[in-house]
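[Q] Does anyone have a clean structure-token version of this?
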Amino acid sequence: METIIPSFADKVFHFGAYGVLTGVWFYTFNYRYNMSRIKALLIISTACIAFGIIIEVLQKELTNTRYFDWYDILANVGGVLLATYLVLFFKKSDVK
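[A] Here you go.
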């Protein structure tokens, strides 16, 4: 018997995936390349949001099995914003 995954589970995945994506890229830019915290956040947040929108558009234009979904974009942006907030809230010096 197949289990049916609720439609909101997909949005939770989008939210979490884009939050992790933002966090990993922030770590890379800020710590590995010594970029300032604000500059890294601006670049990464903008890039992750743009990436999410582009992927949704490409799904609509290039496939017959996937579709464009505004709620996916909202979940992606939510994940990016939460990760951005967490990075700002937990300063580098707070972690020991």
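[Q] Thanks! Anything notable?
[A] The mean pLDDT is 88.
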